[in-house]
């Protein structure tokens, strides 16, 4: 089965240590499974206001193709599994 196009968006901040750890985990998974990664700093204009307001106290937050996937901690195995499920079904299942 061909992979579906995937974009992961990481809502982050330059002062957030959990965000740095989350990005490192995402990049490790990206080496195994191709997807586009977009990192948006919630404190900069690049981030839509609705998300900067919504996630102000919850970063890091990860979206898969514009749908909420997970927040706070990104576990590589769970992220990889979620991406595989998306490839198979086209559905984004939130990581718990």
Written description of the protein model:
Keywords: Electron transport, Transport. Belongs to the glutaredoxin family. The model has no long low-confidence stretch (mean pLDDT 94). 38% of the residues lie in helices and 22% in strands. Strands 2-1-3-4 form a four-stranded mixed sheet, covered by helices on one side. The protein has helices at residues 17-32, 49-54, 76-89; strands spanning 7-12, 36-41, 61-64, 67-71. Helix 1 (17-32) links the parallel strand 1 and strand 2. The chain has three helices and four strands. With 96 residues, the chain is an alpha+beta fold.
Report the principal-axis shape: globular
Largest sheet: 4 strands, mixed
| DSSP summary: helix tally | 3
- Which percent band covers the strand fraction? 15-25%
Across the major sheet, the strand order is: 2-1-3-4
The structure class reads alpha+beta
What is the radius of gyration? Answer: 13 Å
Reading the helices and strands in chain order gives: EHEHEEH
Low-confidence stretches: none
Helix content: 25-40%
Average pLDDT over all residues: 94
